[in-house]
Amino acid sequence: MLKYYINTILFVLLGVLNLQSQTKENTQQDSISVKNSNYHPKTYGLRVGVDVLKPILSYTLDEFKGIEVVADWRLKTRLFIAGELGYSDRTLQEDNFNHTVKGQYIKLGLNYNLYTNWLQMDNELFLGFRYGFSNFSNRLNNYTIFQEGTYFDPREVTNSIKFSNLNAHWVELVAGVKVEVFSNLYLGFAVNISKIVSTKDPDIFENTYTPGFGKISENGNGANINYTVSYRIPIYKK
Amino acid sequence: MKKVYLALFIILITMGCEDEFCLDDTTPSLIIRFRDIDTNQLKPIRLTAGGVGLDAFIENTTLDSLAIPINTQSNTVTYLLSEILDDDTESTESLTLTYDIEDEFVSKACGFRSVFKNIQISTTNNDWLLDFEVLTEDITNENRAHVEILH
What we know:
The complex is a heterodimer. Chain A is α+β, with helices and mostly antiparallel strands. Chain A has three helices and eleven strands. Chain A has an eight-stranded antiparallel beta barrel with strand order 1-2-3-4-5-7-8-11. Chain A has a two-stranded antiparallel ribbon with strand order 9-10. The longest helix of chain A has 15 residues, at 2-16. Chain A is elongated. Chain B has one helix at 2-16; strands spanning 30-35, 45-51, 58-63, 65-68, 76-84, 90-107, 111-123, 131-134, 147-150. In chain B, the strands form two sheets. In chain B, strands 3-2-5-6-7 form a five-stranded antiparallel β-sheet, with no helix packed on it. A four-stranded mixed β-sheet of chain B has the order 4-1-9-8, with no helix packed on it.
């Protein structure tokens, strides 16, 4: 147990130092593979986990319910195919209107590990991209007419209208870390910036939030963070 | 390595910059222009104006064009326009506007606004308000005058 704590501290310290030359040396050795005694085999297998932020927010916030499952699979020493799958139900109070967005999403992409692990360590500092798709419904709960001044009270419309079968496509750039804290158990933290590719809007207004992407800015941009706990089911080492 | 941390840092910072402001068109007000009935030139009038039963919207102001809000809770609104003469007496005329309301979505920051279609105007003709001319069928913006009052 102590070994893995030291692992984590070492990992953070190493991140501060410049390891450029070390990286070049090791990638050369990677290609020689098994015969070189400095190469330590990495575990290959399916790593599955959950985002821990969403269940906490679901419990503490009335207006949000959601879960996210994350998974990735190592293709090569540094290359992973990764994805996220989730569901969210969120009620948003904007300045002048209130709406509830409910739906599911999936994101798929690749992660590339920039960090060079020493010995049997298997941590990641990665950059990646995702393509995301979500399918959802948007119910406009109420709105107040936007007007200048309050000479007349603005009309409030309270009969709700529901728009179903809406969707959105987007692309994301992700950056994050994954640290092995116990054998095959990883803690991860990632940030991403994303951009809407296309979206099917409701008839009378626009999508300003979509599950998996979050709030959509006027330019179609968004950003997210997630914290994950995942476990790798080991299959083989290579 | 350092480049990745820099990228992460920049990403985290840009995530904070999501403030949007409402700078787009809002629900339009009624724009009235005042012209001389003989010359058709703009002719200012000293006016107190407001909705029936409400406080004055503008008081004792000399102007040749007025933008006055429209009531979004109803299909009709009546304004009392009182000309203030040199001896400070008032002469009141009224203008009634009837319309169909339509709501349209503007943006996330602004929300919904109302526009007014198929407008109809009627006025009293007791004293200074000699005639009027409706310039548009719909009120959807404040770019031009919607009605001209000739006095």
